[in-house]
Design brief:
Blueprint (H helix, E strand, L loop, with lengths): L1 E9 L4 H12 L4 E5 L2 E4 L10 E10 L3 H14 L14 E7 L4 E2 L4 E2 L8 H10 L10 H8 L4 E5 L6
Antiparallel strand pairs: 1-4, 1-5, 2-4, 3-4, 3-8, 6-7
Helix pairs in contact: 3-4
Bound molecules: adenosine-5'-triphosphate and 2-amino-6-hydroxymethyl-7,8-dihydro-3H-pteridin-4-one.
């Protein structure tokens, strides 16, 4: 089993339900461990869209990195994610942030996620469930000093964790 960290985001429809449903589907192949609080976040990369809800989650998996990507993309497809403009609105987005012991950069898959260092909407939830040095060669708190964390607001514990 390998430890992985994911970022989930949604800004269309019933956002909380989208996150809950995605986690339930992920649990089939990823033994979900920790799940962060839910954060309401200003859109990054394409500003003319609704605010997102974001969480980070950890899990253990026997899937290879490529199998895990196919699995997460299958979940996005099953939740009727429709591609719009880059960084645009979506029902659900599941990004693979980290995969234990893996550093790779292929056409399909880059791990650690290539934009993990510049996204407070990823770093703030991740910091809640992981060690500060979880990103190889980086400190989450130091990265957040660069990105700032304005526009990332905790709205509470995931309601389904009750
Ligand atoms: N670590 C990763 N996690 C998820 N997808 C990845 C990763 N590395 C590369 N990709 C590739 O990124 C492609 C685009 O993914 P997607 O359409 O979700 O981009 P996006 O979410 O809009 O932007 P971003 O990747 O910056 O979050 C996917 O088809 C996938 O092959
Ligand atoms: N706040 C926020 N902004 C985004 C998000 C996201 O999950 N949250 N996902 C994106 C797709 O890469 C682009 N922009």
């Amino acid at each position: 089993m390998s430890k992985v960290y994911l970022s989930l985001g949604t800004n269309m429809g019933d956002r909380l339900e989208n996150l809950r449903a995605a986690l339930e589907l992920l649990d089939e192949n990823l033994h979900i461990g920790k799940v962060s609080s839910v954060y309401e976040t200003e859109p990054w990369g394409f500003e003319d869209q609704d605010r997102f809800l974001n969480i980070a989650a950890s899990g253990d998996t026997d899937l290879s990195p490529e199998e895990l990507l196919s699995f997460t993309q299958g979940i996005e497809a099953s939740m009727k994610r429709v591609k719009t403009v880059r960084y645009g609105p979506r029902v659900i987005d599941v990004d693979i942030l980290l995969y234990e012991g893996v550093k790779m950069d292929t056409e399909r898959l880059t791990i650690p996620h290539p934009r993990i260092r510049e996204r407070a909407f990823v770093l703030v939830p991740l910091m809640e469930i992981a060690e500060d040095d979880v990103i190889p060669g980086e400190s989450i708190s130091a990265l957040l000093k660069e990105t700032g964390s304005e526009g990332v607001v905790c709205i509470g514990e995931a309601p389904w964790k009750g």
